[in-house]
Q: What sequence folds into this?
């Protein structure tokens, strides 16, 4: 399918973090291709591994989140295809990497766990029926996560103000005092 997944262009709080990113939910993309029993998956891969990603033949072959460090890809966000239809009234965005419970040892896949490094990552949506893949979107452009700042690089000392800032603040304070005196004089 010609659709290319992407991070929404509008300003959103937490659109890209150190372990997650937000995707625009594709609407009307799978209409005409999906049956009622079909599901849509999100394939997530390191950008340099997306070319070698192979669509699974069945749900049993879906690459799990816990193998991301070694397999370089996984699939997540299994959703009924109807949730992506033109008439669906769902959230306009999807958060990739937002399930911190995936770190628990007993958690079963498919899991939408925190992404382990800044990436970059590429994603695509895959429509799967009971006999395997039916349709897929194109891969996204590379998505690079934010990097956390090392606490050692933060300077705890306050920055010194330049002399022009001090002069401007002094002038404004003096003008405020003159204005207050004039107002009191006019009232008295």
A:
């Amino acid at each position: 399918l010609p659709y290319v997944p992407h991070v929404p262009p509008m300003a959103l709080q937490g659109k890209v973090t150190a372990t997650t990113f937000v995707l625009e939910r594709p609407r009307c993309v799978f209409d005409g291709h999906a049956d009622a029993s079909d599901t849509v998956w999100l394939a997530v891969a390191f950008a340099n591994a997306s070319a070698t990603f192979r669509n699974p033949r069945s749900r049993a072959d879906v690459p799990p989140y816990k193998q991301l460090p070694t397999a370089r890809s996984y699939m997540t966000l299994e959703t009924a295809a109807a949730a992506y239809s033109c008439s669906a009234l769902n959230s306009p965005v999807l958060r990739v990497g937002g399930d911190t419970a995936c770190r628990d040892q007993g958690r079963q896949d498919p899991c939408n766990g925190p992404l382990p490094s800044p990436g970059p990552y590429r994603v695509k949506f895959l429509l799967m029926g009971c006999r395997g893949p039916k349709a897929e979107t194109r891969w996204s452009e590379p998505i690079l996560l934010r990097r956390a700042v090392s606490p050692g690089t933060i300077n705890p000392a306050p920055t010194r103000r330049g002399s022009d800032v001090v002069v401007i603040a002094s002038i404004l304070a003096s003008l405020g005092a003159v204005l207050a005196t004039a107002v009191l004089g006019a009232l008295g």
Observations:
- Residues 114 and 122 are 15 Å apart (CA to CA).
